[in-house]
Amino acid sequence: MEPRPSGGSKPAEPGPCLRSPGGACQATSAYSLSSAGAEPGCSVAAVLPAGGCGERMGVPTPKQFCPILERPLISYTLQALERVCWIKDIVVAVTRENMEAMDGIIQRYQHKRISLVESGVTRHRSIFNGLKALAENRPNSKLSKPEVVIIHDAVRPFVEEDVLLKVVTAAKEHGAAGAVRPLVSTVISPSADGCLDHSLERARYKASEMPQAFLFDVIYEAYQQCSDYDLEFGTECLQLALKYCHTKAKLVEGSPDLWKVTYKRDLYAAESIIKELVGFQHCP
Fold it and tell me: What percent of the chain has pLDDT over 90?
């Protein structure tokens, strides 16, 4: 499916207003940008897989479209990326059934630099579709192949510019990079009969988070070589770059705000964070 450019030339509709300790209204989002002004010195685009059905959420609405303070979750994520001026294009992969709804969100909140492509049946297939849209350089397409591509989750709305800059800068040097966090719980491996087989030493491992960034040619080649099994069952993009392109990703320490909205209780947590960070009045 050919990518559909969407959204107008205006900036995203302001979210709730962030207030300084003195109560003054700041013209920034809830995810204030500590690296404002710094740029990676290369062309950058982003791909957001947003075709999931939210099975673990346990609600009929896919989690990326669930409302938080009457605004869809994915809109907060798009707003966070749009505020980073050096991200040239944002490609969102959504199901055909949700294409119209996504278009409506883009128009209502005046998101910009957004192009829509049809998602695949798995996460990796959705990402691959987004990469294809950036690689193809079709006539009359507003998209062009970037030097570096960011892959992010539509349901991680609190990403900040500093971590985006860190992973992009590291990807330029190493070919791939991803945010990580310390493991909170010990990981164990059960045996076939449901008993403990072994546990992992927690201090030696990290939790892989988003965003991740790649030299575009590296990750695109990895997906082109990817087996059907990996496309169907894999979840880790950094592993694809290692397996198919022998590119070892640089791991970048991420902030606690990179967590993913996965369960119903996470919606309430996200709402609480947004309420904490912002006021309910728009900046004038």
Answer: 70
